[in-house]
Amino acid sequence: MSEEELEVKIEKDEEKHQTEENVNKITSLKSLGPFISARENSKNTIYVSDVPDICKEQPCMLGVDEAGRGPVLGPMVYGISYCPLESKQALIDLGCADSKQLTEEKRDIIFNELNTLDYATECIGWAVEIISPNVISSSMYRRSKCSLNEVSMDSAMGLIQQAIDAGVQIAEVYVDTVGPPEKYQEKLLRRFPNFKITVAKKADSTYPIVSAASICAKVTRDHALKVWKFPEGLVIKDNAFGSGYPGDPVTKRFLVENIDLVFGFPRLVRFSWSTAENALVDKAYEMEFDEPDSEKPKYAGAKLTKFFNKTTKSGEIKREECRFLSQRHLGSVTDF
Amino acid sequence: MSITLDFDAKQLAKSKQLSLHYLPAKIQGDGEANVEKCFNNYTRENPDYGSGILTNSLRGYPLLGQQANVPSGYKGLVLQETEKPLIDTAERQLRLTGQFDEFIYWNYDKVPSNADGYRQALLMTDVAEALMYQPIKQEDLDAEIQRHKESKKENS
């Protein structure tokens, strides 16, 4: 065996070792993919990093942001990060700034340093929730519809609660929002009355702690897509399904090429997006669900005409189906 | 119109057991479906809803399901017809494709219960039993016809 081959082999062994040992903990950028792919992608996954000791003693700020709200494909990821109020400099040193201004490579580097460099791990903690596209669709299609905003807020509050339960001394909370901030702020204050809560548009670029949360969320979403395995058995080369935004031609092609007549799309796709709904019209079998009981029964007393309407003009008597049978959904079938 | 069920007891005994799903949706299409990979793969037990309650989703719609058995004394059969005749009065032939004793019953975002139309309709088995309790014998039938004829004669 030549030296080169040996090296390759050792590297492979290391990789294998890592996937087997470290699937329960994210210690670097490299361990993020294995952690995600070891979990079911039809369910939500929460990861909470170790809490630095200093965060249990000193008042902390906590940032909340999301990634992947708009795309028709893949999970939406919520992220939080926190550090003591006086450790703000560590965030700036890491380069936590508006995550949309950062390239994917830069975000990956920051995420890696956040988890490996001592000055970062000593004072910064983070957590993410990967909200499965399967869960997003089923929530939005429930009988009592649950909007994406509700799903989002529940996830954000759940993560903050996780941090509290883990012992983080939270003092200030900063949240990035796309919708109207007032309502969101009110809801958060009701749940966490003791924190100073700031909900703002583009908080991502204003507060470094929100940038850090945003980087965690975005890097996690990118990796979740990279390591996505289709339980449907589909294999897509390099998982190249594009950005997931409806305008992306690669995403468009993926949607067109992967329609199942009965089941529609693989569950990487958010069925509840109008892009997905429209793509299925005429391309897959039409499917009708028994819709939610939306129409309320109207009762305005018995109508007088009810005593006459059983006879037709020709004098023929129309008979109503026996109530015993109709209430049990039984009827006679002569044609099938 | 008459319908012929084109199989015998022997074929029935040999026919394969099918695994079926009762879905809360009308599917306007007919054909094969990759049920194993696209659906069964995602069935999970979720005790939050009660013991034995299963979850899954269909085209993004949340489903709650439960294993259901064919009522005792009954057998589930799947019959197929190659082509339905265009004329109503034509004879039809149905072939046996398989049988089942159990299936998974799914509701759209509702835990299966006795309020489900399907369960209520199953009362028909009791009704049928009550109606069919005494099989009508040929001699009873003959006697009844005889009586009918006589009463007609008397009246005329």
Total separate domains of chain B: 1
* Strand elements of chain A, count: 7
CATH architecture of the largest domain in chain A: 2-Layer Sandwich
How are the strands ordered across the major sheet of chain B?
2-9-6-5-4
Note the total helix count of chain A. Answer: 14
CATH overall fold name of the largest domain in chain A: Nucleotidyltransferase, domain 5
Determine the most extensive contact between two protein chains.
A-B, 35 and 30 residues
Which regions of chain B have little confidence, pLDDT < 50, spanning 5+ residues?
none
What oligomeric state do these chains adopt?
heterodimer
Helix content of chain B: 25-40%
Query: What would CATH call the class of the largest domain in chain A?
Result: Alpha Beta
Binding site for a divalent metal cation (chain A): 65-66, 176
Cofactor (chain A): Mg(2+); Mn(2+)
EC number (chain A): 3.1.26.4
Pfam family, one (chain A): RNase_HII
What does this structure look like?
The complex is a heterodimer of chains A (336) and B (156). Chain A has 336 residues and is of the alpha/beta class. Chain A has 2 domains: 31-226, Ribonuclease H-like superfamily/Ribonuclease H (Nucleotidyltransferase, domain 5); 237-280, Orthogonal Bundle (Arc Repressor Mutant, subunit A), CATH 1.10.10. Chain A is built from 14 helices and 7 strands. Chain A has helices spanning 3-21, 32-37, 53-57, 88-94, 104-116, 118-121, 133-140, 148-165, 181-191, 203-206, 208-226, 249-257, 274-280, 323-327; strands at 45-48, 60-67, 76-84, 125-131, 170-176, 196-200, 286-289. Chain A has a 6-stranded mixed sheet, with helices on both faces. In chain A, α5 crosses α11 (208-226). The model of chain A has no long low-confidence stretch (mean pLDDT 87). Chain B is α/β, with parallel strands linked by helices and 156 residues long. Chain B has a single domain, classed as Lipocalin (Beta Barrel). Chain B has helices at residues 9-14, 35-38, 117-121, 124-131, 138-155, and strands at residues 3-5, 21-22, 25-28, 44-45, 54-58, 61-69, 76-80, 92-100, 102-108. Chain B has a 5-stranded mixed sheet, with no helix packed on it. Chain B has a 3-stranded mixed sheet with strand order 1-8-7, with no helix packed on it. In chain B, a hairpin with an 8-residue loop joins β4 (44-45) and β5. The longest helix of chain B is centred in the last third of the chain and has 18 residues, at 138-155. The two termini of chain B are 36 Å apart. The model of chain B has no long low-confidence stretch (mean pLDDT 88). The chains are: A alpha/beta (336), B alpha/beta (156). The A-B interface holds A 42-43, 134, 137-143, 231-233, 260-264, 266-267, 270-272, 276, 280, 285-290, 327-330 and B 24-29, 31, 33-34, 37-39, 41-42, 44, 57-62, 108-110, 117-118, 120-121, 123-124. Chain B: One of its GO terms (cellular component) is ribonuclease H2 complex. Chain B: InterPro entries: RNase_H2_suC (IPR013924). Chain A: Its cofactor is Mg(2+); Mn(2+). Chain A: This is Ribonuclease. Chain A: Belongs to the RNase HII family. Eukaryotic subfamily. Chain A: InterPro entries: RNase_H2_suA, RNase_HII/HIII, RNase_HII/HIII_dom, RNase_HII_hlx-loop-hlx_cap_dom, RNaseH-like_sf, RNaseH_sf.
